[in-house]
Amino acid sequence: MPLTGIEIFKSLPKTNCGECGVPTCLAFAMSLAAGKAELSACPYISEEAKAKLEEASAPPIRTVTIGVGQRALKIGGETVMFRHEKRFENPPGLAILITDTMDGAEVDSRLERFKLLHYERVGLTLRPELAAVESVSGEAAKFASLVSKIKQNSDCRLILMSENPDILAAGLKECGDQRPLLYAATKDNLEPMVKLAKENSCPVVVKASGLDELSQLTTKLTEAGINDIVLDAGSRNIRRAFEEQVIIRRAALTKKFRPLGFPTIVFPCQMTDDPMKETVIASIFVAKYGGIIVLSDFQGHSLLPLLLERLNIYTDPQRPLATTEGIYEIGGPDENSPVLITSNFSLTYFIVSGEIETSKVSSWLLIKDTEGLSVMTSWAAGKFVADTIAPFVKKCGIGDRVKHHKLVIPGYIAAESGGLEEELPNWKTLVGPREGAHIPAYLKEWRP
Q1: CATH superfamily to which 5-57 belongs
Q2: CATH of domain 326-444
Q3: 63-314 has which fold?
Q4: CATH 3.20.20.20 region(s) of the chain?
Q5: Boundaries of CATH 3.40.50.11600 in the chain?
Q6: Which residues are 183's β-sheet partners?
Q7: What is the reported pTM?
């Protein structure tokens, strides 16, 4: 069971220094227990206490990192069976399959799709992360050449796929510094795969023909000092693969069965030859409970739904999507352009900005931090009222960019216009439309 706030507090230095960002050690302990703070935020915790707390608070499913730098992918780290219990932690990585028997043109087209299939939604960039590079030819030099080409022509994280350690070693010579995932350690190649993973500090997939064998192999790997493990129970039947995902998650979370306490990899690309059926199968494992999902190819009409499903499932239900506070230029605003303000709830931002774009009237849009709440909700909570809006308008610098000093507020907070006139004596407050759909007509009547 996770440690309670009181149990964590007993190991803290109890200085109440506030340097962690909260006023007391007890408050910090409660934040740690709720998963809202990191232990590293405490500057005075002893190494002994840190080791004790990190071990006790480690998630039942280990977090595994693939790749390096800002584009490194984290999978695992899960603590609940169902999202509504708390949240899911690390979204599954989506991988495109590239083999060393594909011709150069096909490899190039797949890398091009990997590069281009990015989507903007609610202020986020949705994109795949991985390329699964498989040795089908059995030729080490051919495999190494493909790995080198992919590394040079894309920013994807890599999965190197072969059960021959010598072929994987050849691929690692081209990309070992990228910390790829090695696929796969089996009962027949365990010893050389352990050596390869340890020498290159790479995570490794353990592949077995069932859960019992999988547990035995992960135990041997952990005893050998390999802890960054990804699980492949071996089934390529949809029903059985689904059952295995649920059993693995439940064994790790409810039974605390450490040999299965690792993220998984699944292969919809090996379960069907029908591209659309493959997408449906992949959607199952986005929800239950794939850590990496390998697809035969990426196409926009099938990839986008998977990215959106992943976004929806792995969004923290306790925290609304929010846009960063600041000044947003829509069109090419100048000193005579209108100035509008709204809350930082992402959906509100995209509706308002979209309607401003529709109006063809270049404008300044001020986004006030309301902790991700909508206009009405944040106004009712006292987060989008004259007392909070006025300081933001003063400090954001919009006054230096326009001559007219007219501020358009949402119609739903018209009651704040009087307070804003008092708080911002150099500004004139205008009450805009209540509904976003009415913004274009309002702006077309704008006069500085």
Answers
A1: Electron transport complex subunit B, putative Fe-S cluster (1.10.15.40)
A2: 3.40.50.11600
A3: TIM Barrel (3.20.20)
A4: 63-314
A5: 326-444
A6: 161, 205
A7: 0.77
Mean pLDDT, the chain, integer? 93
Chain region(s) in the chain for CATH 1.10.15.40: 5-57
Taking CA atoms, 168 is separated from 46, 56, 148, 195, 221, in Å, by 41, 35, 13, 12, 18
- Whether residue 2 is predicted with pLDDT greater than 70 in this model: the reply is no
Residue in the structure block whose two tokens are 């409970």: 289
Write out pLDDT tens, residues 8-29. 888 899 999 988 888 899 988 8
